[in-house]
Amino acid sequence: SHLLLLRADGVILTSGNNDYGQRDLKGWNSIQDLGAGSYFSVCLCKDGSILVEGIDDSGQHDARWWRDIVMVDVGEEHIIGVRKDGTLVAVGANDCGQCNLAGLNP
Question: Over the range 6-18, which residues count as b (16 or more CB within 10 Å of their CB) and which as e?
Fold first, then answer.
């Protein structure tokens, strides 16, 4: 329902639906990567922290407490992160087991 683009100069471009504020990303700086869920946006900052904006109906905003993240992936209603040490973390909807990381961590 929305899209996010990160330009080489660090500017975030957005388009599409903003019913839940998922495109309200002004002031977000030092962004390394980003992703769009159904009605939320996620940014991985260069310091390894996470920013989340938009709907939080499945606990997606809990990712903002993560630290030492080096990679992030976003699904329809969930977020998966990889920490510096290689461990995986997940928040959000788990109705199909998409956040079940048992056996995947080193």
Answer: eeeeeebebeeeb
Q: Please tell me the pTM assigned to this model.
A: 0.91
Q: How far is CA 30 from the centre of its chain?
A: 15
| Residue found under tokens 């973390």 | 89
pLDDT per residue over 17-58, tens digit each? 999 989 998 888 889 999 999 999 999 999 999 999 999 999
Q: Decide: 76 and 69 in contact? Cβ < 8 Å.
A: no
φ/ψ bin of 55: left (φ > 0), alpha (ψ from -120 to 50), beta (otherwise):
beta
